[in-house]
């Protein structure tokens, strides 16, 4: 189990009804179904991932966030809406965040931090679009079309009046390091945010 | 005629006829005092009878879903692509039951059978059968076979409707329902096509109000036309285009009205063959069963409310070029399942063959189907 998924798991109450946007091969949902008796669905478009989900018994719906949206889901019909490592790949991350909090009481989002010092250093030294183990693609073929920094994300949350319930940063191996907690926007590679519209 | 059977075939199979003597009350209010069901089975039922899979057939289908009846058979059963050793419904793991539904014309009691009350062929007096009635009779069949709970009920098209109805009528008697290229109810356009088919049959002078057997004749023209219309709705524009294009049987136009284009002669040939082998009254009955199916009807047209009766897990599959029961219809069903918080997985398979794609083993289709059924097998210890 990847450490970031372990962190997410801690935030999910047993028996939660969960929607996982871009659920990949269903690792997280499979784990939540077993360990937290969670119900719910994963949305995915990659055919191989969908087949893997079916093989392991994860309820997966083939649905494209960009072209089909999430209109088929009712307001506040989930306890938690998850999106791990997919925010940067959608056409309108701001609208997807709105939708996440329309459908769920809270949202959990993970994404790569573009202000990570190695990426800054890469750009400064070479003058070329950074590539790393978290962002291995070329600028022209990357699925990551909306990269942002932690500060950017928090500014967006502030503008939309989302409350950040928890924030954790991890390194490329998804480990929680004290250094990255000290100066997240510079030293954190991947952010895990837990957001809500509600006050309590 | 094959010299040897393919290794992934269930091999030579023999249908069995089961007779039932307890009266079956139908949705229309009538009762069938006794009836026969013809079935085939493939694979072996395990000790706790947990590995049984029911196959439900579509409009013109029957019990012969897989394998061959003899070494002289030109073609295997209608879903041989998906049933057999190593195929999505793996007969090394599952005990597969396939039947000819009531009202059919392949051996189960239907309009072609003799009415015990009159000693004459039922013909048009055979009651209209609904999807609920079929599922009811299939549950009685399960009792006879000693199957308390199906590992899965599987069907395409009208067969998918039966799988869905199973989940509502007998929620505790199936673990999974696989609903393929189907719909929660027909649209006006679907009903319109059925009406054209029925009108073609009933307006044939040889139809004689359904009593053609008494006149020693068959409404061949009408049934042929019905099949030709139906056949078009099973294919896609693209697949017809690829198969026939505008190809002519001879080189030039003949400035007449006989079948000049290949597509015309194909439809006529298929229609003629069908009209010799299928019963016209059964065709009317099957299309009406399609029209009537609408599980939301009794729930104020709220499909999600209807689905709260179900407790099994669902797999719904659609095909991109299916315009008879388009992906949008499957999504309507899936969305209602989501609203009812049922366990459902869904995929739209990209395939060019229209509605018929559910019979054709495209790699992604068989991968998903196989992955899902593999997981069902593990779940029941098969």
UniProtKB/TrEMBL annotation, chain A:
Q: Organism source for this protein?
A: Marinobacter mobilis
One Pfam family, short name please? MetW
Please name the PANTHER family in this protein's record.
TRANS-ACONITATE 2-METHYLTRANSFERASE-RELATED
InterPro entries the UniProt entry points to: Methionine_synth_MetW (IPR010743), SAM-dependent_MTases_sf (IPR029063)
Descriptive protein name = Methionine biosynthesis protein MetW
Q: Which domain of life is it from?
A: Bacteria
From TrEMBL, chain B:
**Which residues carry out catalysis?**
157, 322, 355
Q: Which reaction does it catalyse?
A: L-homoserine + succinyl-CoA = O-succinyl-L-homoserine + CoA
Q: Specify the enzyme's EC class, one word.
A: transferase
Name the residues annotated as site: Important for acyl-CoA specificity.
324
Q: Where in the cell is it found?
A: Cytoplasm
Q: List GO terms (cellular component aspect).
A: cytoplasm
Q: Name one GO biological process term.
A: homoserine metabolic process
Kindly give the InterPro entries that the UniProt entry links to this protein.
Answer: AB_hydrolase_1 (IPR000073), AB_hydrolase_fold (IPR029058), HAT_MetX-like (IPR008220)
Record: residues binding substrate: 227, 356
Q: Does the keyword RNA-binding apply?
A: no
Q: Name one GO molecular function term.
A: homoserine O-succinyltransferase activity
In terms of Gene3D superfamilies, this protein maps to: 1.10.1740.110, alpha/beta hydrolase (3.40.50.1820)
Xref: PANTHER family: HOMOSERINE O-ACETYLTRANSFERASE (PTHR32268:SF11)
Function, as annotated: Transfers a succinyl group from succinyl-CoA to L-homoserine, forming succinyl-L-homoserine.
What name does UniProt use for this protein? Homoserine O-succinyltransferase
What taxonomic lineage is listed for the species of origin?
A: Bacteria, Pseudomonadati, Pseudomonadota, Gammaproteobacteria, Pseudomonadales
| Gene label | metXS
């Amino acid at each position: 189990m990847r450490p970031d998924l372990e962190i997410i798991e801690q935030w999910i109450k047993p028996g939660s009804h969960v929607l996982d946007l871009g659920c990949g091969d269903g690792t997280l949902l499979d784990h939540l179904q077993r360990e937290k008796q969670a119900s719910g669905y994963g949305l995915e478009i990659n055919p191989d991932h969908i087949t893997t989900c079916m093989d392991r018994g994860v309820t997966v719906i083939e649905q494209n966030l960009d072209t089909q949206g999430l209109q088929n889901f009712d307001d506040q019909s989930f306890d938690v809406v998850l999106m791990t490592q997919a925010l940067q790949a959608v056409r309108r991350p701001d609208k997807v965040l709105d939708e996440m909090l329309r459908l769920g009481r809270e949202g959990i989002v993970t994404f790569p931090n573009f202000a990570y010092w190695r990426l800054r250093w890469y750009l400064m030294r070479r003058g070329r679009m950074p590539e790393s183990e978290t962002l291995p693609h070329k600028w022209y073929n990357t699925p990551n079309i909306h990269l942002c920094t932690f500060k950017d994300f928090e500014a967006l949350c502030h503008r939309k009046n989302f409350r950040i319930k928890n924030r954790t940063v991890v390194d490329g191996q998804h480990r929680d390091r004290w250094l990255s907690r000290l100066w997240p926007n510079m030293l954190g590679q991947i952010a895990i945010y837990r957001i809500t519209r509600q006050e309590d | 005629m094959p010299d040897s059977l393919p290794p992934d075939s269930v091999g030579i199979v023999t249908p069995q006829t089961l007779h039932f003597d307890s009266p079956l009350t139908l949705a229309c209010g009538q009762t069938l005092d006794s009836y026969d069901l013809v079935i085939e089975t493939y694979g072996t039922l395990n000790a706790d009878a947990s590995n049984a899979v029911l196959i439900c057939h579509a409009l013109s289908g029957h019990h012969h879903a897989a394998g061959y009846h003899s070494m002289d058979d030109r073609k295997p059963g209608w879903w041989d692509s998906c049933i057999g050793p190593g195929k999505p419904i793996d007969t090394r793991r599952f005990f597969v039951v396939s039947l000819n539904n009531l009202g059919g014309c392949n051996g189960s009691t239907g309009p072609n059978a003799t009415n015990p009350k009159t000693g004459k062929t039922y013909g048009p007096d055979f009651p209209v059968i609904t999807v609920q009635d079929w599922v009811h009779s299939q549950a009685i069949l399960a009792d006879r076979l000693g199957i308390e709970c199906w590992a899965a009920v599987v069907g395409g098209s009208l067969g998918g409707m039966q799988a869905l109805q199973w989940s509502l009528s007998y929620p505790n008697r199936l673990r999974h329902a696989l609903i393929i290229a189907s719909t929660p109810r027909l649209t006006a356009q679907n009903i319109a096509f059925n009406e054209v088919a029925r009108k073609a049959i009933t307006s044939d002078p040889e139809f004689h109000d359904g009593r053609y057997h008494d006149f020693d004749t068959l409404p061949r023209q009408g049934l042929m036309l019905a099949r030709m219309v139906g056949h078009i709705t099973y294919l896609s524009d693209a697949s017809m285009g690829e198969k026939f294009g505008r190809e002519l049987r001879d080189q030039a136009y003949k400035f007449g009205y006989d079948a000049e284009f290949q597509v015309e002669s194909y439809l006529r040939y298929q229609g003629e063959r069908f009209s010799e082998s299928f019963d016209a009254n059964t065709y009317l009955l099957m299309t009406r069963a399609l029209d009537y199916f609408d599980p939301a009807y009794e729930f104020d047209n709220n499909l999600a409310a209807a689905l709260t009766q179900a407790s099994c897990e669902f797999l719904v599959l659609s095909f991109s070029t299916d315009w008879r029961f388009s992906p949008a219809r499957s999504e309507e069903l899936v969305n209602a399942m989501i609203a009812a918080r049922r366990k459902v997985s869904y995929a739209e398979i990209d395939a060019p063959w229209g509605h018929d794609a559910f019979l054709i083993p495209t790699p992604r289709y068989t991968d998903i189907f196989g992955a899902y059924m593999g997981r069902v097998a593990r779940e029941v210890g098969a």
